[in-house]
Amino acid sequence: MAAQSGLSHPAPGRGGVSVFPPVPLSAEAAPFTPMEPSGWRPGSQSEAEKLFSNCAIKLRAMRVDSVQLKEELNLLFDQLLSENYNRTFEPADVCSLLKHASCLVPLTQEHLVIKLCQVVHHLLNQLKVIMDEHTLDVLVNYTAGALKVCSTWTHTDVLLALSTVVYGNGPQCHQHLSDLLGEEGFLLQYSSPSQSNMELRRVALTCMANICLRIPGQPPLDDQYRSVCFRAFLKTLQSTKPPDTDELYYCMMIQAALKGLQCCLSGGKWKFGGGEELGSVLAALKRLMFQGAPGVIVEWPAVLYPAPLPQYESLSAAKAAESPKSLEPPKDAAVPGKASGNKKRKSKGKGKKMKTEESRGDEREGDAETVPAPPKGRAEEKQPASFLYPSWKLNSSDSEFSDLEGNAQSKLRVNHGRVRQGALHCLLAVVKAVEKRTLYGYWSSFIPDSPIGGPPPLTLLTIILKDLSPKVRLCALQVLSAMLDGSRQFLAVAEDTASPRTSYTPFSFTLATAIRELHRTLSLALLAETSPQTLTQVIKCLAYLVANAPYHRLRPGLLTLLWKHIRPYVRHRDVNVRVSVLTLYGALVTTQAPLPEVQLLLQQPDHSSSTGAFTPQDSGLSWRQRDGVSSPSRTPVTHSQRSSSTHSPHIPHTPGEEDSRRLWLLQLCVTLVTQPREDQSDSEGVGGGAALEPPPVRLEALQVLSHLVRGYFPLTQHYLCEIGQVSARCLGEMDTSIQLHGAKLLEEFGSGIIQQYRAENNVPESSRVPISQVVQFWSEVLSGPLNRALQNEQHPTLQASACDTLSSILPQAFAQLPDKTQLMCITVLLGLTYIENYLVKTAAVRALGIYVLFPCLREDVMFVADTANTILAALDDRSTNVRAKAAWSLGNLTDTLIVNMESVGVDFQEELSDMLLLKMLQAATRAAADKDRVKSNAVRALGNLLHFLRQSQMTRPAFQQPLEDAVRALVKTVQSEATMKVRWNACYALGNAFRNPALPLDSAAWSHEAFSALCHVVTSCKNFKVRIKSAAALAVPAHRGCYGDTERFTRVWRSLATALENSEDTNDFLEYRYSASLRHTLSQALLHLLSVSQSQDMLGLSASLASEEGTGIREHLIKYLRAEEGGGEEAEKDIRGESLHPRERIGSVEQILIRIKGLKVEGEEERGKEMVIHFLEDLIKICEETWKNTQTNREVTESKASSLLLRFGLDQAAGGFA
């Protein structure tokens, strides 16, 4: 190409002066000053800048009618092409030069057109100029015109320039896209499989890829043209190599198509077309994942289909005949493609260091199909030299090529690797673009289960274990990680705790087998990999697997093997590897915590020197501690450290009394955070001897500690002092990230203590952390650096985290803290609510919402009032996060008001300011019209406040309108299209308000609206939990007068009856599980209405009970009274919160019957009363008979059992006497 003509004059510098002038060697010589690649000292104007400026001046002076224009332009273009530009010029200058040059070069001068296109490509490619729209339009017009006018031989250079111009500018070229990508567009013609010129086809595909490329912040390309490009790329990938085409050019063309496909998928939301489009893409990518892989000769399917079982590729006859007969490879090369894969590589000095390391890494990799995991206890035995070598990765003893042939083969091998890498990048884009549930159907094509005879399938795991290039292996691991990420719901069905049936293999067992195969393969890759970057990704991939696999449904042992394999890598020289190992440990102690298997592993002593696994890197791993020897600056050697220095085979250890409290993982993380490292890795340089671990390692170790405390608190609670010291040290450091994680660790530990003391968790007193220790712990923490973190206004995130730490203090311990400490906590939190930063304000308001529930603070009227005023101010904040947390805290505060009203009584109600209550009521009403995040707790607060108000307050004029507005806000929320959680809370709030006997339900105008809203919801809402709460609310009023007139009472009854009849009608299976709870609550509500009914209600009740509706009511009430259906989590207790035995339920119906019989009625109401009485008597009779039969059967069964036991005892005694 002409672009290289200016680069063929090496040695002397510009102007004939040597770039490296001779300098005499002497002590007095001037110190060495480094030069830039151009040969000029820093600070001086570069030759390239001078040349560019001169060329721009000359170009602006040229005119189209000049006689020597052609020669001058040719010379000028050569000068521009001769420089390598390593400094950024003004974009306007470059754009001006290119626009002017395009005006001077006519399309008839094809040689000049090529030179100009090369200049465009050279300048834009090296200077990374962002063009303005006018320049873009001019250059696209010019190149498009050149494609129409100039000869075909020029089109490669023209397209190359066009590809540089449109790079990331596809949406801005919309007016030219029809000419380029239309049915007769140049790019579609040149990228077609019928195009014989491979270079032209490659550049056309590159140009299309650059059009599809999306720069962050810019809109994506129009879907119409993106689809056109997508089809062109896919057609290229599906086409086979023409017979007369060079393999190298074919690979370069495929790389361009892969890059284009990746740009299409990554350029915005993408939806695959119907039919087999996704399967076709996956099939093409799977074939190209193995492009050029030696020994892979198969007939690939054209389409992959979603299936639970793998679609095995059919091997050719030649390949089928090649089955490995032993672990040792054949001495003679007999694998097809060995010429490209087995050439002996030679290191040629330091310049080949990376290639040498790659070669060494290749020699270490394992074979997933032929190499079993090493047996337990045999790690010290010598393995054959080829134990972990795939047969097609062994080096041949002699070179099989000449130098030229070897160079060509090397280039081809590199390009094959790039194709495989590009295919994996595309597959990664597909995984990210396609919905997870759609992709699950294709898992079996990329992730196998255990091989069951025959040839092993070609999958991602094959690449991870066998590919020559660490970069390709890295890409395969990234794809596998993306597939595993978020797959918990899919993998949750895996199970192999029981043996599968012989007639068929359940899908759950197949999925469990795939998980085991993933463990096996990734463990082999872990032991064989030597490239630090790829090794890091192997460990990250294992972390994704551990985080998503359901180990509680799998046979134990998988995590034990993984734990054993990973432990040596904690001391790996590479920082990233160490960080990824800690990430994996974090996943292990997080997944389904607490797992019994992990609990045992945590208590195992540290046998890190004898892991029982073959680890090729063992010789270079232990940079931190060798043979258990620690430096004098460290803590004394523990029992577990001494045991790690022995080299005896690893024996499964059952922790005894002595080791039960030694958590080696916790000790390791504490050491990594606090202790200085003894050595430094090569990559970290040599520095002071007291240097701590790098920040990423320390941060990850702190995260593991937090996960450990959260998931396995009973094991970590014995390290109360150590964790407090670690957190205090972290909070005292300068690094804000370390401080942040230290505060988070404290919060997790505090939350663990709170969980222990919750009554519902039933933790024995002897197993809890003693209160005295908790008080001492928080006293030391609050007198230490946590105060500085709370006052660190330069780092709001740290302040917010410190507020969260304050909120995790055990209430019982807070009550025993010194008064000044309690006052400090409250004062700091109240002050932080006035900080402008929303993170700090949110955390402080949340902490106050927790403190207001503390028994030692909730009866303090002054604290409650101060907290209420703070929350009211936060409810008006512009940040939604602050308002949402303020509404939550207001809900907690009003919960406290209800508790105090029931425990303290009227005294507390009278002490609390009426004006403050009014403000709270108005603020909660306004918040009920806010976003759903705010609204859900605002309605909760409204229900509590309406319950708390006294008669004297409701009659005051200042309260009447706010009271009406509050009830109407609840009614509006119940009827709205808000989220179900909001409506559920609103129904509960109305029921809570109905508990206030002072509320004028019989006379208020808003009362009718409240009952109507609840009646509508109980019959029509799709969400059964909302129906349950609305039914419970309708059953709250304790007196008949609260239900209003007869018409309203009858409507409530009819609504409940209709809801009971339709309690099984739902199209959502998830709702069906709440149907029993709904029927339970509706039955309670109907009986409650009968219990408060009066004589005027008898006609309406009798009409309902005598109809077909009454038959359904009878059936459901009988089931309720017999307790045939469990109430479920939503209705375990009756409306008044009392748990009733079936006999007690029947007794309550008898009481209702007695009350109704005592009602005085006349006329038609008498007939209605008789009907209701008959209904209740019939109900009681049926239930009594059932109860008696049940008791009789139980007594007979118990009698028979007693007789059998007595007879068995006599027989035993007789036998003993004999």
TrEMBL record:
Residues 341-353 have a biased composition (Basic residues). Residues 606-642 have a biased composition (Polar residues). InterPro entries: ARM-like, ARM-type_fold, DUF4042, HEAT6. Residues 643-654 have a biased composition (Low complexity). Residues 418-598 form the DUF4042 domain. It comes from the Eukaryota. Residues 321-384, 606-658 are annotated as: Disordered. Gene3D superfamilies: Leucine-rich Repeat Variant (1.25.10.10). It holds the Pfam family DUF4042. Residues 354-363 have a biased composition (Basic and acidic residues). PANTHER family: HEAT REPEAT-CONTAINING PROTEIN 6, MALARIA ANTIGEN-RELATED. This is HEAT repeat-containing protein 6. It comes from Oreochromis niloticus (Nile tilapia).
